[in-house]
């Protein structure tokens, strides 16, 4: 597909056909990414409750790596979509190359500092004395993979932002399937324990990285990260970080929130750490499908905003919000009904893990449908370059509301407060996001009316 054909597709194809076409590959990619963590959690949980807790502790580390990759990838990707829509290809190339090489450098710094301070790191992430040995075994391997994992996340977002979501799906899916196969082989077959789970993950991620690199280099009409386009110029980083700050807020605070959750749960024992870790993975798996759907919406939104087709931006937003609400309503009902059996799949030998996790899962399912408004609303503001409002909605869930809740509620209500913290944060985030998005939609309607008058 030539650039002109792609431009025509993005600004003329009916929204109810275009977004599903772009979203299906991204949904699969996000689900597979979530399966990386789900597979590790499931297989490692068969070892012991402490080992299961170690995966939860290292989730915070994975979130740090994702924060770097997604911030640079989505920040540059959203900017690239707008520039391609505005036919400013040179600026798009600059953002592409700068994001890739910056991600590798930051991943390398994280790896070196993390490995040199691994003991202090796992304690800081919330490991108890019994969980710490498992957490160190797992964390060392994850840190080794940090440089190429960050670049993989950038590549994924760049492919999606250019309307090539199917290509990103190929690399992610291959790695995910490989991870699921290798986990039981290395953990149980070769008796490598939790180290086997980590090795399976980083090897699978490396395979994904190589596939994505080949696809980016060899695919036509995909911007390449040539070194000659890399620049330290302030305007490039300003544009990348302006669009990427909501992601940095969301991903960075997700890591911080995970640390606070682990620390709070550790006061109630390893069973509480393991239970909340499992619940977090389950909810991430559900939300990953919605995020994948939203990432099919983002390039359409950014491209049409750059092309001044504000009417299509609004149409895309309302279409995605309706679909997301129906999906999460169905998933919330199903997961509420099967919460106890789901927890048994992970840790059937530990009744305390099942009891704590099942109630926490039910509480979160009650607020799950409201996440459709939160996630799609945040993606709307981010895709059209409304950086401050996008950042505010992105940081509200984990930063403004969850961290204070997890610091206060367990002290007041014990383990029930631990389980209530996330649902309370979700409800407050919904209220704030709606207040912001209503104003953004009003502005877009005004812009659409003005553009219509100018064209007439």
Automatic annotation (TrEMBL):
Keywords, sorted A to Z: Antibiotic resistance, Antiport, Cell membrane, Ion transport, Membrane, Transmembrane, Transmembrane helix, Transport
Transmembrane regions: 21-39, 59-79, 99-118, 138-155, 167-190, 196-217, 259-279, 285-307, 319-338, 400-421
A GO term for molecular function: antiporter activity
One GO BP: monoatomic ion transport
Compartments where located: Cell membrane
Cellular-component GO terms for this entry: plasma membrane
Organism superkingdom: Bacteria
Record family assignment: Belongs to the multi antimicrobial extrusion (MATE) (TC 2.A.66.1) family. MepA subfamily.
Purpose: Multidrug efflux pump.
Name of the protein this chain belongs to: Multidrug export protein MepA
UniProt organism field: Parablautia intestinalis
């Amino acid at each position: 597909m030539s650039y002109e054909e792609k431009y025509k597709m993005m600004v003329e194809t009916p929204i109810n056909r275009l977004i599903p076409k772009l979203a299906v590959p991204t949904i699969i990619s996000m689900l597979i990414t979530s399966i990386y963590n789900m597979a590790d959690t499931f297989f490692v949980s068969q070892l012991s409750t402490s080992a299961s807790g170690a995966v939860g502790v290292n989730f915070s580390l994975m979130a740090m790596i994702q924060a770097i990759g997604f911030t640079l990838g989505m920040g540059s990707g959203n900017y690239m979509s707008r520039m391609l829509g505005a036919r400013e290809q040179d600026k798009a190339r600059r953002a592409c190359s700068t994001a890739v090489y910056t991600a590798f450098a930051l991943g390398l710094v994280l790896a070196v500092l993390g490995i040199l301070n691994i003991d202090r790191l796992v304690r800081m992430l919330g490991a108890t004395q019994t969980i710490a040995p498992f957490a160190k075994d797992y964390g060392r391997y994850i840190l080794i993979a940090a440089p190429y994992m960050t670049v993989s996340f950038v590549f994924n977002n760049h492919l999606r932002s250019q309307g090539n979501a199917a290509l990103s799906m190929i690399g992610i899916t291959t790695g995910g399937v490989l991870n699921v196969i290798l986990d039981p082989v290395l953990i149980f077959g070769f008796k490598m324990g939790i180290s086997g789970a980590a090795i399976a993950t980083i090897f699978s991620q490396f395979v994904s990285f190589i596939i994505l690199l080949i696809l980016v280099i060899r695919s036509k009409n995909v911007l390449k990260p040539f070194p000659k386009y890399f620049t330290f110029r302030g305007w490039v980083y300003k544009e990348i970080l302006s669009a990427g700050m909501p992601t940095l807020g969301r991903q960075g605070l997700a890591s911080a929130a995970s640390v606070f959750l682990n620390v709070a749960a550790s006061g109630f024992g390893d069973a509480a750490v393991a239970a909340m870790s499992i619940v977090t993975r389950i909810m991430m798996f559900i939300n990953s499908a919605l995020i994948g759907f939203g990432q099919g919406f983002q390039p359409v939104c950014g491209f049409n905003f750059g092309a001044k087709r504000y009417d299509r931006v609004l149409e895309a937003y309302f279409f995605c919000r309706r679909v997301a609400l129906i999906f999460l309503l169905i998933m919330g009902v199903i997961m509420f009904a099967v919460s106890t059996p789901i927890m048994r799949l992970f840790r059937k030998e530990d009744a305390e893990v099942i009891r704590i996790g099942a109630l926490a899962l039910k509480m979160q399912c009650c607020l799950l449908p409201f996440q459709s408004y939160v996630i799609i609303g945040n993606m709307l503001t981010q895709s059209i370059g409304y950086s401050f409002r996008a950042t505010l909605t992105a940081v509200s869930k984990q930063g403004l509301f969850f961290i204070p809740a997890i610091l206060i509620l367990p002290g007041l209500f014990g383990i029930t407060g631990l389980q209530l913290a996330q649902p309370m944060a979700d409800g407050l985030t919904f209220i704030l996001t709606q207040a912001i998005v209503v104003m953004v939609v009003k502005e877009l309607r005004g812009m659409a009316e003005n553009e219509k008058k100018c064209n007439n």
